[in-house]
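Translate sequence into C-alpha cells.
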Amino acid sequence: MVRTYLLLAWTWLRASAQYPVSLAMMVLGSFAVNALDVAAIWIIFQHTGSLGGFGLAEVMFLYGTADMSFALADTLFGNVDRLSHHIRSGSFDTMLIRPASAFVQMATDRFSVHRFGRLAQSAVVLGIALPRLGLSWERAWMVPLMIACGAVIFAAIFTLGGALQFLLTDAPEVANAFTYGGSALTQYPLSVYGEQLVRGVTFVVPLAFVNWQPALYVLDRPDPLGLPYWLRFAAPLAALLLALAAALAWRAGIRRYRSTGS
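Result follows.
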C-alpha cells in the first residue's frame, strides 16, 4: 500500500511540475497565508504578556506543533475530504475497480506540493520557538512523538469525515469543523477556552492530545483543569484508538456504497 501511495503521489507531482512557476507561487502563497496566523499571535502579545498563562515562546511552540501535525495530515491524507465530489460525479466508481486501495487513490488524488508551504512555515515557527524554551533532553523527546501522534489524529479525523460522506454528500462542511477548526483550536493554549470545551476535546474528540497534553509535559506546566498527570503520555493511545475507529468507519462506508447509478 505504501509503494502504491508513493507511485501515485509521484505521478501527480510530476504532472504539477509541468507548471513550475504556478507551483512555486502556490507554495509561497500557502506559506504567506499561514504566516498571517503567526502575525495574529504576535499582535496579541504586543498588548499582553501572556495568553492563558503562557508566554510568547510557549504559544509559538503550541502553534508550531499543532500546525506541523495538521500540515502533515493535510498533505498526506487531506484529499480524502473531497470524497463527496467523486461520489456525485461517479468517478469514485472508477477507483473501486482499479487494482489499488480506494483510500490510497483518494489520498493521492491531485497530490501537489503546494501544501508543503504550510509545513515549511510551521517548521520555521518551531525552529524559532524551541531554542527560546530551553528544554531539557529529558523532556524534549516528547516533541517528535507529539507531532507524529497529532498527524495521526488529524489524518483519522480526515478519514472519519470522508467516511461520513458515504451517508451525507454535504458532509465536508461538518468534517471541516473538526479538521481545519481543530487545527485553529489547538494553535492556542486550551486554557483560554471554557472547561466544558476542554473536556470535550480531551474525552470525546481527542484534539487535546495533538499538542496540549504532551506540551504540558514538555513545558513542565500543571494542567489548569487538574486532569490526571498520565494524560500527558496518552497521545499514542488516543491516536491509535481514533485511527482504528476511522479505519472501521471507512470500511463500513465502502461496504455500504452502492454507486451513483450513472
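Note: DSSP finds 13 helices and no strands in the chain.
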